[in-house]
Amino acid sequence: MSILGGHLLGLEYLSPGQIANLLDLAEQAASGGLPTDALRGRVVANVFYEPSTRTRTSFELAARRLGAEVVNFDPERSSVQKGESLVDTALTLEAMGVDAVVLRHPSSGAPHLVSRHVRCRVVNAGDGMHEHPTQGLVDLLTVRRAFGRVAGLRVAVVGDMLHSRVARSAAWGFSKLGAQVVLCGPPTLVPRELEALPVAVTHRLEEALEGADVVMALRMQTERQLGGFVPSLGEYHRLYGLTPDRLRLARPGALVMHPGPMNLGVEVTPEVAYAERSLVLQQVACGVAVRMAVLYDLLASPEPTPVELRPVSRFELALSGSGRV
Amino acid sequence: MEALLLAGARVLDPATGLDAPGDVLVEEGRIAAVRVPPQPQARPAGLPTLDLTGLVLAPGLVDIHVHLRQPGETHKEDIQSGTLAAARGGVTTVVCMANTKPAIDDPTVVAAVREWSRTASVRVYPVGAVTKGLEGKELSPVGSLAAAGVVALSDDGRWVQDAGLLRRAMLYADSFGLPILQHCEDPALSAGGVMHEGTVSARLGLRGIPRSAEEAALARDLVLAEETGAHLHVQHVSTAGSVRLVRQAKERGVRVTAEVTPHHLILTDQCLEGYDPNFKVNPPLRTEEDLEALLEGLLDGTIDCVATDHAPHAPWEKMPELDRAPFGVVGLETLLGAVVTRLVYQRGWRLLDALAKVTVAPARVLGLQAGRLQVGGPADLVVFDPQAEWVVRPEEFASKSRNTPFSGWTFRGKVLGTLVGGRWAYADPELLRRQLGACPGKILETEGDRGPQKSPRDFWGGPVEVGP
To answer: Structure pTM?
Structure first.
């Protein structure tokens, strides 16, 4: 029985049970419990419209370890340069026999768009400022390994929430598994509207760090400074940078995470990033196992059930109104 | 030209408050008589007659915010297809925006649009640009545009950002009696945004357009309108704050009018959940709270009328990723159904009051001789079944484009026929069954006597069998 059933578009759409089962499957993958020929004859296409090293490489390794073929589609040197649309690119790959499209794209919702047009599986490998679900699963697995559980932990996410797909997936994943999530950063990057997610929002770092079991620093994209979101990276570091001093506010033994790539001296200092309680490298290590679990779940059953094309959400008018003509 | 008797309909005229069964006689393209109650004895034998019992006969709809895309973007729409879409929606008068390519910023372009409109299905009134090329830099030749026949000025799609320029444009345009239609949006606040900035955009990871982008721009424009005394018309109001601003301005006596689109009265930002570009509009769909304020503003007259902002885009243009797709939806063919369903069936409005917002009210905003049922006036009429349910099927649109947010929806209020100047611009086959009298075949004939309004297209998409 497949856990995901269709595509992996975001952790928002998964139940706590689905997430927990995927993490179990990832543990199984990590301990060599999945057959190395489970995906023999299957083709996975990495379609990355943005540069990526770790995500793309870990998907490729994951697919190969399960016996799948991998094609790396490079939009920079392809028909996309000739004006081909995203949907056409996906349909073309599907027509060539691709079983799963792993999509990284700068537009939020791009995998949703593709999933409405193709019947092969779609895995969101990061869409715009929306979600990065496999990274979210990696973060969950890392924490679950370190603490033996996720429920009941306090997780502080510090940084540019507004533009971060990693943070959105983490917020959904941790809260669905019963952790308490608090988001922190300047109001320009952590707007109050984010309370629409199951999280608390604060603009004071001390408040966020207090009693935290896990502190996740988000990458501060240097171009954000130019957009006028913060006056300078230096000021950002003074207000929100994670330093050993500040981490003392967190619970003793609190662990530090960063989805990478890091800007040392901006969101974290090297002392924090490379300290013993940093999980940064463990995070990377979980990456392949999680992606094996996802690909295995979507593609391993002998004949994956055809995916229902997702209907566009509609908000129909009720016609039983009070009016009379 | 043949005379035609439209018999036994429920005759509605929001301009006079008429709502009663009656007969309407059309002669020489004009309304020759309105007989309330119906007078069967006064129906001469041999006069082509349609029995409209159970149907509504009302002034044709007036839509003062339409993009016909001609010249320049006729793959999206042209005057023929756009006005045929209007006719199918019961709309007999459209006001078309200036953001064509080239823009309607020159009397020769106005003349061209008017020339192409001679064979259109419905009446077309062009709007001229406020600034040359809609660039917001230099005033367009307002006097020449007025002489060429524009009914208003607008850089629709773009806010006239330079306050000094807008102020001069208002003073100048007012001397020609031309209102300025403003798309209020401060790009400094909206840049890069694709939807309403709020909890949904935060969750979906989409860049937001805050309410202030509209309200700050509107507030400034109201100040200028108040100072100059010129007529400012606010296009597609979308927020509760804008409704408040317009209401306060009207209380102070500012010459301001406002419109709202059907989609802003029905849909909210939650529709973006599936990242479907058919819900991407500018101004963006807001929240339930805004929507309620818009309905209230429409009811109390703060917002004068409903206009569609019919903005056709080819399917391939509306298919890419949400942030790359253009803004806009089509609206002409769903206008009546949306208004009747929303205002009358859901909100309990009187049909007469709902129709006022799409007939006489928009006509008054721009001072058009339209939207009323006047003896001696042009026979621009719509026949519709207020109860009939119908499903929105974009593939059946007369418009060249399909980008409706209401695909698959069921509306009530179905257009069965549209008369423009006494000629059928659109007629549903249902009307064939309603012919009375001795002249079968004459009433619904599309060929022969259509004169300059004749459309090269067949209104039914194929040869019409006229029954015995």
So the answer is: 0.91
